[in-house]
Every structure is written in C-alpha cells, then in structure tokens.
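LOG
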Amino acid sequence: MAFSLNPARWWPGRGRRTPPIAEEVWRRVREDLPLLAGLDRDETHRLGDLALGFLRHKTIELPHPLDLGQEDRLAIALQACLPILNLGLDWYRDWYALILYPDEFVPAREWVDENGLVWLSREPMSGEAWEQGPVILSWADVQAGGVRDGYNVILHEMAHKLDMLTGPPNGHPPLHAGMSDARWASALGMAFADLRRRLERDEETTLDPYATESPGEFFAVCCEAFFEIPHGLMADYPAVYDQLRDFFRQDPARRLAPVRC
C-alpha cells in the first residue's frame, strides 16, 4: 500500500514535504525487518503513517558522507515508530534531529571524580540520546539490527527518549492511567538485581549484560528484547514483560514466532 500524510496532522508549521512511498518500496523494507512480522493490516497502515510523520518532522543529519536512500530512511523511521505504534508521535516531542554517523562515534566528555579531579572520557558509542536534544546513531549498528537477536540500537535509543520524558533516564517513563508506579518499580527493580546476580555467577542470560550499567540502560535493553525476542524476556522476567506490554499497549509475543538466541 502507498501511504499519504495529511500535512495538518502532525505539528503544523514544522513539517517538510515527504514524497509518497510506493507499495514495492514499503514491501521490500517491511520484509527486511523481521520484527514487524505479524502486524495486522490496521497496525501496518498506522505504523506507515507514523513513519511518514517521523520523516516529515525529524531531520536525519549526516555529519559525514553517507549514501542513505529512501528505503534506508524508511527502515529507520519504521523501527523508531514501532514502540509508539499505539501511543502516538507526540511521545517523541521536543526533539527534531536524528544524527547518523557511518560507524561508532567517540564523543569527548568531561567528568569530575570524588576527589575533584577532572577526567576526559573518549569511549566509542553506537548510539546516544540527549535529553531534549538529538538522537545519535551509528549506521553500521543500525544495519546490524536487521535480525531478531535482541540488539537494536534504534529501539534502544528510542526507549531512552521515552524514559527522558520524566527527566534524566532512570528506567521509569511516564506511565498510563491505571498503571502502578510501585508495581513498575518492583518488577524492573527485582529483575535488574536478579540479572546482576546471574552475571556474577557467570550464567548465560537472555538480556545483554550492558543492561546492568544502570536502571535506565536496563529499561532500554528490556525494550529491545520486548520487541525483538519477546518470548525470551517473558520466560526470564514475566513481570517485566507484563509491565512493558501495558506501557507500549502491544504484545509482541502474540504476533512473533519464538527465536533461539
């Protein structure tokens, strides 16, 4: 199907004209993204509409030469919009740029230790989200997210953006009416502690060990697993899966076939 967008639907005055996307382009991109499998016709159409809105109101900036075609841009937008399929584009408000580097990038950061000494950190990164600022991604890592293995840098950074709606990322985005802050904190907190214990015992885990860096990273890694390997997350941490299902208003385990990680 070809998607068209009503220019008045998303934040009038900020948009740019977006050329229509032909059915064959949409089909190729969708087939190359296995995490979209199982979406029904209505969900597919709504996701396409959101993706066009995303491309219309977010700029994709390329600091270095990069051959990025229409299909590439659509693939980025579809993955970015999957978490907000049943939430709406307003959940990505207050930021307007996605910066794409060819490969890992190395931001320079200063930090002060407990003794007052200033240190400069230069750590390679595959993705980064700034509070009320841009999302920065490595194109090489975006391309590596084409399989359902629990690693998807786009989903990860979009999760941070949702988390940042309540301030610095702490693993607790704004919850819907009827959801319990206490149950959310309990489910994710207990799973976070359990994952740390399992890694200390050198046990294999479904979740990437990077999840233990902080509660914010734990939430982001869980979101990757929720959309890519939902059966694994549900098996290890069913309470976390239930909370994410209620938050995203989606149930990927019902539409996706299990995969072996």
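LOG (cont.) second protein
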Amino acid sequence: MKGKKVLALLTCTALLAGSLTACGNAASTTAPSAQEPQETSTAPASEAAEETPAASNENAADDSITGSLTIWEHGTGFENSLAAVIEGFQKKYPNVEVEYEIKDGDTYYSLLTTAIQSGEAPDLFWTNGTATTNMQDYVKNDVLMDISDLDFSALTEDSMKLATINDTVYSVPWLTMDTRACFYNKDLFTENGWEIPSKFSEFEDLLAKQKEAGVIPISFSPTSFGSVLFIFEPVLSAMDPEYTKGLSDYSVKLTDQPAKDALNKMLEWADKGYYGDNYKGVIDGSAAILTFTTGKAAMFIGGSWEMSSIESNNPDLNYGAFQIPAEDGTTGMVGTCANGFSIYKDTKSPEAAKAFAQYCASLEAQTTWVQVQRAVSGSPEIQSANPIANEISNCDNVYTSWQSLISKHSVEGGTGNAITEEYFPKLFVGDITVDQLMDDLGKEMQ
C-alpha cells in the first residue's frame, strides 16, 4: 500500500505480555529449548548462544562481584533469550552464579506472591510493569529495590514508563515491541488465490471466501482471555482508527460504542462460522496456534511473541503477517513494550542483583534479547532478526493497547482487569452480553 512506513523503530507505549508454560533452571551447560520444556535443566546455553550477538569485549571481566542469583521468568517463549542474556552477563561477572526458573503463566503471580510472603522470593523476577497493578502492589508493600541509580541511557523514554512509579525505577524494560498481528498461511493463500486485504470490508470478504473453501478462517480459543483480547484490539483499531488514537491520552472511554462494536463484530464472526464449527472446544491459546500451524486454519490473530511458538510447532510453515486494514486503507499496530525484571528488596546478593539489572539495561543485553527473541524491535539501534517481525511493523500507525489503560485509569481499588479476564471468555458461550460487560467495566473506571 502507498504511504506505508516501517515502524519497527518506534518506541513503546504500554505492556501486555503473553505467556506459555514449562519450567527450567539455568547454571552452566546447555539450556532447554523452548520447544522441549524440561522439569530441570541447566544453562546458559551454548545452543541458545549460537543465535546470540557476540558479547562485547570492550570491558574486562569483573571478578570482584560474587553471589548467587535466582531469576523467575513467566513463559517458555522467553527462555532462550534469558539464557543468552545470562551467558553474556556471566562473561562479564564470572563469579556470579545464576539460575532461572520458568513459571506457568496462569499461576505466575500467585506463585510469586506466595514466595514473597514466605521470604523465599527469587532475587530478580518478571512483572508486567505499570501495565497492570502487580508491580504497583509490590511497591506499596515495600518488596522491590529502587534501581533509579542505574544507567538506563540505552533505553527509550517511553519504555521507561513501564518501569517507573512516582519517579522511582523498579524494573528494567526490554526494547521489544509486543504487538498484535494477523498471521497467515502463505501456501493456503497462494493455492486459493487469496490476497492480503487492503480494506476492512475486503478482510471480511476474505473470511467468507475461506469459510466457503472449507478452511477455518481464524484459529481462535474463546476460553482464553488472551486469545480474545489479541483479536479484539486489532479489530477495534481497524474498525475505528480515530477512536483507537484517542486511547493514547484517554480522551475516549474504554466503554464507548466503538469498543462495543468490535466485540459484537467478533460475536458476529462466530455466528458465521469464521472460527470453525467447533471453535468452543479449542481449550487455550496454544491449541489455537496448533490449529494454525497444522494448516487447518488460514489465519491466526495474536501477539508477536507467538512467532516462536508458531515456528516451534512447525518449522517448515510458510507463513507471513499483516495488520488488519481500516476501511480507508490505513493500517495500525497495537504496540506494547515488554517489561523485564525487578529486584527483590531483601535479596541476599544485592550487588550481584544490581549488576545483572544493569547488564539487562545495556545495549548489548537488549540487542541479545531482541534478536534471540526474534521480536519486533523498539529501538532504532537494534534490528530485528526476524523478517516476519518486519512484516508486522509495516503499518501506518501505532496504537495504545485498550487493555493497558484499565490499570492506569481504574478507580481506587477497581477490579476492571478482573472483569475483562472473566467476562471476555463468557461472551462467546452466551453467559453475558457486550453491554453487561461494558456496564460493569464502566463502574470501575475513572
């Protein structure tokens, strides 16, 4: 399309990370691959490091800092990146022992809270930053270390908003753009003569053609909050770009009519069979990805971080990505920035923990994370290693995540996030209506 510009270099505005499941530890040998999660294993990995940018040798190793660190990450999709970053860190700090654990995404925060309450919290752990209330709650309970004195010059101003509460920095963000996109099976498109749509009406026409051809148009799990959300936001931005632009300064409300229209459009597609006749039996987001990667569905709409899962499921899949277009022909990307690790205030190795956080904030570690993650880059100094990531970022606008504003603009003690997490899946089994969802959400918003 004319007027397109690559936005991989744009900065980030909010966060919503996805999650997978598995567990592992890292210390000295080969890390488990994300495709083959193990109960226990060791790292950092020579295997993961094969894709890692060469560590800088500008600074000599610092053997004066010692200690033992345990790091918690929230999904297997981030495992290889973490292992590679740990390897780079240990080249600089050879006397610091580092282990990591991958915790189940659905129970991550409950496990973390239990560990904190028992005094056995990991030294560093992932949070959603300011995109949800979890990090804010930990700050209120005096759980996190103030790391404002670290050097964050390699990071962008917008990314640091994820890490900062009341002018104090409590985490290190990653310069990856967690975006949403429409992934498509290139072979199916070629075989059937389907083209990437240039208008929203053409996208809907494409869904009808795919259904008529006996192919599931969109692989979708209605039981997964994330699966619903990551279709809803791109559909919303395509149906009403002006409303979506207004989310950036909260000049529009989350419960306004355009948001209702997008959810109702998704329900309309369900009635037309665009998610498949048995889509209600797709139990989670991983199952929805499997439906796409096995060629049963023409498209899968989800987070950019799912590229690793798509490629793990089917390394030979010939797939691409595009943004659902608006009726005026423009496209937009719901862009969110990924957060990283906070330091437990009562860590027994504070010097080593701060050294690791500082390393994470370096351009070297950020480049490693982005490239091993094969993610969309949020920095003009870091190039993505994945051509699909460049297809995702080929759009006209970047939009704020609808969901990320719930935490920022809820009334004191509001439960807006809990409402959407509970209600979104209920929409597709008929337990509630869109109006009921928005009415209850509206009561929790400023």
